[in-house]
Write a structure and sequence with these properties.
Helices cover about 45% and strands about 15% of the residues. The protein is of the alpha/beta class. The chain has two domains: about 130 residues, no CATH class; about 190 residues, P-loop containing nucleotide triphosphate hydrolases (Rossmann fold, 3-Layer(aba) Sandwich), CATH 3.40.50.300. Strand 10 and strand 11 form a beta hairpin. Helix 3 packs antiparallel against helix 4 and helix 4 packs antiparallel against helix 5. The longest helix has about 30 residues.
């Protein structure tokens, strides 16, 4: 596996250098804007992807099994590479006419998966505000908030929030973060564990609940959920964890049946991962949409790539983004999704 770093004045030039040096099989591992306005891209390529013989590993040398795992991870990034390349090639015509500052912004947005037309819209809005005298940070935050985010009406936190989403996106960790923040501000909290499928789910959430001094009630079915919510009636906020939605439409139907008898007004929050591709988001949303989410949390934004895809998709379906999950630390790695925060995590700031 060969890793190399490339720097250039723009993302387009850096990607061209990657292709010239490593060929079309190269995958992007990381991108980083430079202080002088340029961009640095770290890329890798396997010089012999067909190699299958297993040789003994010397101490300190990565073995074939580890290389196989790395190849799979890099393969998962291949779609992003193709998407970025298409976005930047399309940008030759789409984002023409922008000044250098706005052009660089559009390219950074494209590197985060933002569709070329949407990247152009944000960049042109940014350029107009800059021409009117707005500072760069303020112009950027306003442009991102206007075109990439659906406004969240100012309101107190709802009393009951049910978290739904694909398996493995971080619903349980998000609940722990929200609960810790609520406890810190003096609110009384209840947690309901309605995920009866995932091995260890109750133990994980139960551990967080014990650390926070928060009661946790299990709910194996709809009747259990109704009783649990009744028991938490005097709590300021209640968070409900649900089973992950896989590829089977029955998963969403099961969660819908779980919630159907509940007479308490609940808010449904979708949880999706930033690294998901647009096809994966469309597939996931086909199941999540049946549960009528009114808000969304995008997790794993610290793992790089794809936040632009997620934001663009949520703007398209009209669901407000209210939180960003930026890591695994509880409660630190949770950020309110305003224009400035989203711009920073898009790498656009």
């Amino acid at each position: 596996m060969r890793l190399r770093g490339f720097t250039a004045r723009s993302a387009r030039e850096a990607l061209a250098a990657v292709k010239a040096a490593l060929g079309p099989e190269a995958v992007i591992l990381a991108t980083r804007p430079l202080a002088d306005g340029g961009v640095e891209i770290t890329a890798a390529v396997d010089p012999d992807p067909a190699r299958g013989a297993k040789a003994p590993s010397a101490p300190g040398v990565v073995g074939e099994s580890e290389l196989g795992a790395l190849r799979r991870e890099l393969g998962a990034l291949a779609g992003r590479v193709a998407r970025v390349d298409r976005a930047l090639r399309a940008g030759r015509g789409v984002i023409g006419g922008l000044d250098e500052e706005a052009q660089a912004l559009a390219e950074r947005l494209a590197l985060q998966g933002t569709a070329p037309a949407l990247a152009e819209t944000v960049a042109r809005s940014f350029a107009r505000l800059r021409a009117q005298g707005a500072p760069a940070a303020a112009a950027l935050a306003a442009s991102v908030e206007r075109h990439l985010l659906v406004a969240v009406p100012a309101a107190p936190e709802p009393p009951v929030t049910v978290f739904v989403g694909p398996t493995g996106v971080g619903k349980t960790t998000t609940i722990a973060k929200r609960a810790a923040r609520a406890v810190a501000r003096g609110a009384s909290v209840g947690i309901v564990m309605a995920d009866t499928r995932r091995i260890g789910a109750a133990e994980q959430l139960g551990c967080y609940a014990r650390l926070l001094g928060v009661p946790l009630a299990p709910a194996a079915d709809a009747d259990d959920l109704v009783r649990a919510l009744a028991g938490f009636e005097r709590r300021d906020v209640v968070y409900v964890d649900t089973a992950g939605l896989g590829g089977d439409a029955e998963d969403a139907a099961e969660v819908a049946r779980l919630l159907a008898p509940v007479r308490t007004v609940v808010t449904t929050a979708a949880v999706v991962a930033a690294g998901a591709s647009e096809p994966a988001l469309r597939a996931a949303w086909g199941r999540v949409a049946a549960l009528q989410p009114t808000t969304c949390v995008v997790t794993k934004v610290d793992e790089g790539g794809g936040l632009g895809t997620a934001c663009g998709w949520l703007a398209e379906v009209g669901v407000p983004l209210d939180w960003l999950g930026t890591g695994t630390r509880v409660p630190d790695d949770l950020v309110a999704a305003d224009g400035g925060a989203v711009a920073a995590w898009l790498g656009a700031a």
